[in-house]
Each structure stands twice: as structure tokens, then as C-alpha cells.
Amino acid sequence: MQLGQTITQFIIEEQRRTGGTGEFTALLNDIFTACKNISSAVNKGALIGVLGSLESENVQGETQKKLDVITNDMMIKANEWGGHLAGMASEEMDDVYPIPAQYPRGKYLITFDPLDGSSNIDVNISVGTIFSILRCPEGVTDPQAEDFLQPGTKQVCAGYALYGPSTMMVITTGHGAHAFTLDQNVGEFMLTHPNLTIPADTREFAINASNERFWFPPVKRYVDECVAGKDGPRGANFNMRWVASMVAEVHRILTRGGVFMYPNDSRDPGRGGKLRLMYEANPMSFIVEQAGGVSSTGTERIMEVTPEGLHQRVPVILGSKNEVERIVAYHKEG
Ligand code: AHG
Ligand code: MN
Ligand code: MN
Questions:
Q1: For a tag on the chain, would you pick the N or C end, based on fewer CB atoms within 10 A?
Q2: Angle 136-286-110 from CA coordinates, rounded to 5°
Q3: What is the distance in A from the centroid of ligand 3 to the CA of 131?
Q4: Can you name the CATH fold of 204-333?
Q5: pTM of the complete model
Q6: Does the beta carbon of 126 sit less than 6 angstroms from any atom of ligand 1?
């Protein structure tokens, strides 16, 4: 691996090194093309009239932004024709998207969140695209929702694009997590941050503190102890951040460490938190674990959760190993 090499060269060489066939290199290239298109649309913003909301709601009852729908379409159009996929599932679509009959079907499935953090789009704060690649079960040519319901440990690849001051792509195929920066002039993602490593210790956490009154005791205890600072039981001052774009929070954690929490709470405990297992939690957990971090619901490794529905939500606590393990220990203590 060589700094400055293109993402395609990186993937092909990584597959050679690790004994993979590299069969999904072409699939990944289609995903990268979609993300470059999305980057361009997000970047032009109001100049091309893509900001703002629609009347519609998605399957989870959230008002859709224009760009939620546009970016979902970009992901579909870039990926449906290539012959590598048997089906797609997205946060923005109620049901599985089958590959149209005129195109060949392949052996992979993809799940994605086309625009993560879309509440930030109108205020020009970083957003992203998250994706996860699974194998289509043997013998299945017309995959249904249950064929996607594989635990995160089965992911072949996961990644996200971050549309920030730079557009970046972070991917893992299970051999470390690596970050690439889009050179807008060349139109390629270039390797800039190989082998991302999350420091095991941190003094920074991220949680939407407006939900404090709904938190369960383990989360409240952890945050209270951090906020108590130097004079509290931790004996150290902590810093807090909340971007409201999971991609941006995870990227910060991959860069300088930290903890990100969207826990379950007492508002609607049956819902199991806010973030979606198949489109957000699993791919991000795969990347975080590959960078040496930990990702848990508080009681269970996220990647070992058996999915029960495409749009299932899951509590998420991820980031620096020692802090996440501390929060998990607080859950055990009750
Ligand atoms: P999306 O825009 O795809 O619906 O995801 C938003 C998610 C996540 O990115 C972020 O961390 C969280 O929702 C923010 O939630 P709050 O608005 O409750 O803070
Ligand atoms: Mn999201
Ligand atoms: Mn989204």
C-alpha cells in the first residue's frame, strides 16, 4: 500500500495480498461513482436547487429531504446495471429494490443510507453516505428482506463517504480501515490515511444531551461522571461534541478517538434507539472494530445482533476501546 495510490489500485492490491478474488472491485467502483455524483450535488447545493424538504415521509416516518430522494436514486442508478448485485435495500425505501430484469444479477447485496445527517444539509454541515456489502445467500436469485437479515459479522465490505471540507471515502474489507481523499480535479479517491487507529483512551464523548431526561441509568452515570470533570470520579475534564451526522462523528473518532452514543431511552424503549442496524450501525461497527475500537448496544456486540427487520433500530455505543468497555461494564452493573 502506497500513499497517494487510487482507491481502485488499493482494493485490487489488497485482494491479491489477502487471497481474495477481487470480484467486488467493480461493484465498489460503481459505489464510488455514486458517491462522487452525490458529492457534486451536495457541493453545488442551492445553485442547482437541491436543498429543502419534500412533503413525503420515509418508511420510518421521517420527513424526506429532496436530497434524500435524489441521492437514493443516484445510488440505485450507479449500482443496478453492473451485474454484481442481486438486490439493494435502503433507509429511504420501504422494501427491497430488485435488480431490473434487463440487467444481469450478481452475488452481492448492498444496504445503504444514501444521505446520513440529512437534517444538516440545509445548514451546510457535513453529511455522508454509508454502505454495507453482504453475500446473497446461495441459490437465491430474487432476494427478499429475509435474505438481507444477516448479522454484521457477515459483511464483506463496509464504507462511508463523508462530504465535508474534503470529500473522503473510508472502507474496510476486514483488513484494517483506510481513508481516501477525493481529488476533485482528477476525480479519484487517493489513499491518504492508511490503517486508521482509534486511540484506546479518550477524553471526548458525543451524545444528544437534550435527551438526558430519558436516559437509562448506565448512560446517565457515564455522562455525569464525564461532566463532573477533574473533581469527579474520573479525575479528568472531558469535552463534548454533537454534529448530528453519524458519519462526521465516526470520522472524528477514527481520527482522534472519542465515544459516540445513540442509546435506547425511555421515550419509546420498544424502538431500540434511533439508528438503523442494517444501514448505519453494522457498517460503522465493522469500520470501528477494524480500527481497533469497540461497538456495542451496551449489552451486546452490534455485529452479533441477529437482524429481525430491514429497518430495525439498535442502540449504538462506539469508539475508543477503554471507554466503550467502561460503558458496557456500567450496563452489567445495572
Ligand atoms: P439520517 O439523516 O440518515 O436520518 O441520520 C441521522 C442520524 C445520525 O446521523 C445522527 O447521529 C442522528 O440521527 C442525530 O439524531 P438527533 O437529531 O436525535 O440528534
Ligand atoms: Mn443516517
Ligand atoms: Mn439518511
A1: C
A2: 30
A3: 11
A4: D-Maltodextrin-Binding Protein; domain 2 (3.40.190)
A5: 0.97
A6: no
